[in-house]
Amino acid sequence: MTLERRTVRCLVVFLSAWHTVVCLFGLMAGIMYATTHIYGPTLKFVPEKRSKLLRDCPVTTETMDDLIVQPFQTEEEAFATFNTHGAAIIPSVLSKQTAQDLRAFVHKANPEMHQVYVHNQENRFRIMPTPFEPDSAVVHRAMAEIATHHTLKPLIDNVLGPKASLIAFSAITSSYGAEAQSWHRDTGRSPMTHPTKFVHEVTLTIPLQDTTADMGATGICPGTHRCNWVSDVEKNDETDEYDNMPCPITASISQGDAMMYHTDLIHRGGAHVDEHAPDRIVLFVSFAESKKGTAEDAKKKLAYGKVYSLDWRMWGLSIDDFPHLRKFQWRWSCFHPLGIRLFSNSNIGGGGNDEDYDHAAIKPWNAVDAFLHIFDKPGDTAHFLSNKFNANQAKQTSAKLVLWAVGVTFAYFWIGVPMWGFVILQYVFRMRKMTLL
């Protein structure tokens, strides 16, 4: 083969590859541009709007004892505690041995597993453990104890409905020197502000060692899950912090106890200032309410703003799956959010009706929901697109985006594909020639 032919062939291969990359990146860039520059401002939710929808309110209690659900209390009393304060403390959810073993597992896994986002990251670490890793039997044991606890499980069922969806499962380690987080909610747009659009969510925090305030125990403002903010509290413009928050409760609870709070509750992780204390390792587990399969429920999404830290192999699980997980199941559970169920409850040892199970599996890829929301029409005064949504403009812009994507695809198939075809044919002819020789 002459040098000229080799040069031409290399040039064709380079141009074909370059054309393919440009087309793909162009399509991605177009979608990102449309989302961030055209629809992004429409989706923006400013804090001032929450203040128009909800009032400020005082905290409902300043005593942690009011949040503790005792074993002798009824399910109705436990629900009333959570409903009033937006939080409840349930003792001994994990056994001491399980909490101790899980702590050792997380401590060992921190430098080995992928780190995910956490507020105020310095001296904080966050991983997403699963029961599918080597030597992770303790993770499965902890999940089983959570799902079968005689007080916690009925409370979750009463708050979220049966078969609540798992939406986050992570462990956060706070070492000495970790700074206090700002007071915040986990969600921005939520069922409290948009009741017809989003599902309710709760988070469990389970410390894996005894925890004190100096170790950075979680601080909460009881009752603020239904409010705009705490009454008579204003932000310091210089520090951008709330200096006079009347929220004295820190969940300084024992190893294996659980605090369950609504994701709309104002809270923060404290500063770890005790140099003689061990790292504070906490298991975070979040659930979303069941979807009953009605037309109204079908439109509800996960709340916006929360970090959904969940390994993809655990997508589509409900709390009822926790005790019965087997290593092969992650291959099928990721199809649950699509409504595809490839094994029955009898295969995993669980009970219940398969028909209502699939509705409990909420999609974990929340960004898609955010993009699809642009096509919704405001149906109530609390809708976050009210007074901003321009249906005609959205249709015109969407049509332009579709035409642009079609044009790119057309250009690729009429220019890129023939180029690649030419390269492949040249390769085939060359191989045949070598075979004949």
Tell me about this structure.
Helix content is 38%, strand content 10%. It folds into three domains: 1-39; 65-356, q2cbj1_9rhob like domain (Jelly Rolls), CATH 2.60.120; 378-436, no CATH class. The chain is an alpha+beta fold. Mean pLDDT is 75; it is low at 35-47, 345-361, 364-368 and 370-391. It contains twelve helices and eight strands. It is elongated. The strands form two sheets. Strands 1-6-4-8-3-2 form a six-stranded antiparallel β-sheet. A two-stranded antiparallel ribbon has the order 5-7. The chain has helices at 3-43, 47-53, 75-85, 96-109, 137-147, 152-160, 295-298, 330-333, 345-348, 354-360, 366-372, 391-436; strands at 87-90, 124-127, 165-174, 201-207, 219-220, 258-262, 267-268, 280-288.
Features of the shown structure:
single chain, 437 residues, alpha+beta, Jelly Rolls, 3 domains, six-stranded antiparallel sheet, two-stranded antiparallel ribbon, 12 helices, elongated, membrane
